[in-house]
Amino acid sequence: MEKISEQFTGFQWGVGYIDKNRIKHNGENWECEQIFFNSPLIVLDDAVHSVAEKRWVAFGKTDQGRFLVILFTERKNLIRIISARDMNKREKEFYNEK
Predict the structure, then answer these.
(1) Where are the domains positioned within the chain?
(2) How far is CA 46 from CA 30, 51, 57, 75, in A?
(3) Who's near 92: CB < 8 A, 6+ residues apart?
(4) CA–CA gap between residue 89 and residue 28 (Å, rounded)
(5) Residue 45 CB-density burial (10 A; 0-12 exposed, 13-18 middle, 19+ buried)
C-alpha cells in the first residue's frame, strides 16, 4: 500500500469539526494528524459512509501512544478529518494483529 503521507500534502479542518473531536472524545487536532506519520498505520475503505464522497477509516497511534480511529475524506490533496475517537478493545486487537 502506498504511504498515506505521500498521497496527501496536508490537513483541512471543516469549521464544524475543529472542536468536535476535542469536545466529544477529548482528542486534539494535532493528535489526529500525528497518526498519519506513525507506523503502523492501517487505512481501509469506508464503504458504509462513502455515499456522497469517498471516505476512509484509519487506525493508528499518536506519539504519546494513544490509539485512534479516524474517519476522513480527501479534498484535493488534503486529508479532511471528519471524526476521531479512541480505539475500542476489538479495534486495538485488530490493530495489534496487523
Answers:
(1) 8-85
(2) 23, 10, 6, 16
(3) 67
(4) 21
(5) exposed
Q: How crowded is the C-beta side of 41, counted as CA atoms within 13 Å?
A: 20
* Set of cell numbers at residue 85: 475517537
The neighbouring-strand residues paired with 45 are 56
Q: Residue with C-alpha cell 479516524?
A: 70
Grid cell listed for 16? 464544524
- Averaged pLDDT for residues 75-95: 92
Which pLDDT value is given to residue 1? Answer: 34
Q: Which amino acid appears at position 54 of this protein?
A: K
Q: Decide: pTM greater than 0.85.
A: no
Long-range contacts of 84-87 (CB under 8 A, 24+ apart): 84/21, 84/25, 84/27, 84/31, 84/32, 85/21, 85/24, 85/25, 85/27, 86/25, 86/27, 87/59
